[in-house]
Amino acid sequence: MTAPRLQLEQISKRFAAVVANDQVSLSVQPGEIHSILGENGAGKSTLMKIIYGALRPDAGRILWNGEPAQIRSPQEARALGIAMVFQHFSLFDTLSVAENVWLGMSSSISLQQVKDGIRSKTAEYGLELEPERVVHTLSVGERQRVEIVRALLAEPRLLILDEPTSVLTPQAVEKLFVTLRQLAATGCSILYISHKLDEIRALCHQCTVLRGGRVTGSCDPTVESNASLSRLMIGAEPPRLVHREATPGQLALRVNALSLEKLDRFGTDLHEVSLDLREGEVVGIAGVSGNGQQQLLAAISGEDPRAPDAAIELFGQPIGRLRAGARRKLGLHFIPEERLGRGAVPTLSLAHNMLLTRNESLRFLGWIDRQALKHQTASIIERFKVKSGGPGAVARSLSGGNLQKYIVGREIDAVPKVLVVAQPTWGVDVGAAAQIRAELLALRDAGTALLVVSEELEELFEMTDRLHVMARGRLSPSIGTSAATVELIGEWMSGLWPTGPEDGPGASIGEFP
Amino acid sequence: MNDLALLVAATLAAGTPLALAGMGLLVNERAGVLNLGAEGLMLVAAVAGFATGFTTGSELLALIAGAAAGAIGAAIYGWLVIWLNTNQYATGLAVSLFGSGFSAFVGIGFVGKKLEENPVTGVPLLRDLPVLGVALFRQHWTIYGAVALAGGVAWFLYRTRGGLILRSIGESPSAAHALGYPVRRIRLVAVVVGGALCGLAGAYLSVIYTPLWVEGMVAGRGWIALALTTFATWRPARMLFGAYLFGGVTMLQLYLQAAGVQVPPEFMSMLPYLATVLVLVIISRNPLWIRLNMPASLGKTFFPGS
């Protein structure tokens, strides 16, 4: 038997107060696709950074092909044959594909050789990528392809992928898997980091589960079920969401054939977007980000008040030109995707962040009633179980999940008539995500109309009553969620939907021209 | 006709310090570091150049001393903002104010002194051409050097791997760091080169252009050079164009005064600054233009490993 490609023995890494990795051991065979499964904060990224030489372990040993190895920097890792595709792409927007790849290679290679190399690799793996294109013109999936081709050109013996599918359409995920299997067949080992159970079961040969920095299990994912993997990952199965049948009431929000030019060149034009939202229902918008969701949300929330007045109606009242504050007074609240910077001011306390969208604690001439504000903030912290240092804690000091709970809580507590939410559980761990979804559904049952924009199909299927798909600035007709399938939505994500109104249950859409 | 030729000649002479300093700042900013201390560096270099020229009598040594003074000043600035992570705006302003005070203090003994003038030879043969000879070819060699420099910087930025690395650091230092490039060291080199060119520009003013030392003689040219980097959207050819355009505006004002056009001289001398503001407003109307060309990390502190 040959030595494992990579073997970790008792790796530990501690940051000031947190033990990120606690005696982690695992081994990866040549040609094996090995998944590292764990929640946010389980220590996956730290472990990968150690393997890639970006961090040094406090204790433990790394064996490479059976030999002890000191990996002190990413360059040394690359020299060994370790390549990594990051979750957040480290690409330069204003440079071409070839230039981006060239920057990651040794200087003895000419730009022309890089271009030729890209062409031959893309041909070998059946990927489409034009080396001369400038990166900012590429879609997210294409950008990831740049990273993968860059990694492949180094002829790696071990490829690390950090949450590679979080930004891809289901079809693009399938394509990626084909590439990865092909690569593994050549003997390259793959470390695949993810928290998506279905993908791991479909792709990986081996699975190491991390929880709180420790290995809680090691298994063959192909014979496990989602439930058993989930138990290893979070120690319990996530509570099932109870989703009662919706009872849609009167029309709350209507978007009428809204067309808008993008504000900047990196945006997307909106074309004839129409949608109806009723009280007591959750409507979802699926789609890969960058297809106009940002522009639509800005137009609905009032951040971008350029829409024709009648293009957006709230309970029959045209609001296209109103600003966000005026819309909020009419009962339309918005939870943006970026928590820090748009949902909350990072450097201000939670109490002061309350004042961004709530004015109950304001008195005559804008005077702040500090006692009232403190009570109001504390009540939300308590009700939504936000782990924080209290109302005086600075927003930035909260973890992503807790801040999200706070922001969602702030808007839910206002009992809006219409709530528009972008990526409600993005980067939030499973427990908090379940709580946020349950709270949003409870709000629906109380009669609020909810519009949820998300990239996570699973979440949309769990929460929504009807689904739209957004692609290239257009919005599909809606389909009852119970009638929709992942395959269908995936197809629609590439812009292929029937042009006439869909006759799904609960379908109600604006007129199509 | 001869008047026009003289105006062109004067424009070239007046625009050259802007071109030199601007090109240095362009390299600087392409790496993501904003150096608001340009004015101060130019002043220090001007007095260093003048002092060297006065004591040694050598024009070349004077220019070298100026460039060295600029480089040293920029190295201190770079050390502060790149390694000690101080705020680039505040530190740059401090360097600028320090430079004007320091140069005035050091330069007290040189006020009213005059350098020996070296006859300008210009380009052999071509200098005897009618009109064109007067307009273009009877200039100090640094002016041709400035034009060549623009070509060299353009070639470096867009045709070499080194230039690509420099641009990539200006756009995303963290991504460049992840690829294993020594972001801080490369930034420091860019800052020092930028400072040396600012210094050369300062020394040009006191050694060749005037040639005198007067307190505050840089007279805002450092600020104009900074504005020019935006005006040029960080492109060398446009930088050259902008520098000579502003040189032209400065000279036109003098010619109009000489021609007896009744405009208050104070108004005329504020024209270049007014034009700077105007140009900034105009190009800022097109955010795309700035965004596609502006180094995205400009003015931001980079912390490796965060």
Defining traits:
heterodimer, A: 513 residues, alpha/beta, Rossmann fold, 3 domains, 7-stranded mixed sheet, 6-stranded mixed sheet, 22% strand, globular, B: 306 residues, mainly alpha, ABC transporter involved in vitamin B12 uptake, BtuC, 73% helix
Annotation, overall tally of beta strands of chain A: 21
Q: Per CATH, what is the topology of the largest domain in chain A?
A: Rossmann fold
What integer is the average pLDDT of chain B?
89
How much strand content do the residues of chain B show?
under 5%
Q: Over all CA atoms, what is the radius of gyration of chain A?
A: 24 Å
The end-to-end span of chain A amounts to 67 Å
Helical content class of chain B? over 70%
Total domains of chain A, how many?
A: 3
Distance between the first and last residues' Cα of chain B: 62 Å
Q: Would you tell me which CATH topology of chain B applies?
A: ABC transporter involved in vitamin B12 uptake, BtuC
Shape of chain B: globular
- What assembly state would you assign to the polypeptide chains in this entry? heterodimer
Could you characterize what this model shows?
- The complex is a heterodimer of chains A (513) and B (306).
- Chain A has 513 residues and is of the alpha/beta class.
- Chain A folds into three domains: 6-234, P-loop containing nucleotide triphosphate hydrolases (Rossmann fold, 3-Layer(aba) Sandwich); 240-331 and 416-513, Rossmann fold (3-Layer(aba) Sandwich), CATH 3.40.50; 344-413, no CATH class.
- Chain A is built from 16 helices and 21 strands.
- Chain A is globular, with a radius of gyration of 24 Å.
- Chain A starts with 5 loop residues before the first strand and ends in a 20-residue tail after the last helix.
- The model of chain A is unreliable at 501-513 (pLDDT under 50).
- Chain B is an all-alpha fold.
- Chain B has one domain: ABC transporter involved in vitamin B12 uptake, BtuC (Orthogonal Bundle), CATH 1.10.3470.
- Chain B has 13 helices and no strands.
- Chain B has helices spanning 2-30, 38-56, 59-83, 88-107, 132-136, 141-159, 161-171, 173-178, 183-209, 221-231, 236-258, 265-284, 287-293.
- In chain B, helix 1 packs antiparallel against helix 11 (236-258), helix 2 (38-56) crosses helix 9 (183-209) and helix 11 packs antiparallel against helix 12 (265-284).
- Chain B is globular.
- Chain B starts with a helix and ends in a 13-residue tail after the last helix.
- Chains A and B meet through helix 2 and helix 3 of A and helix 7, helix 8 and helix 13 of B.
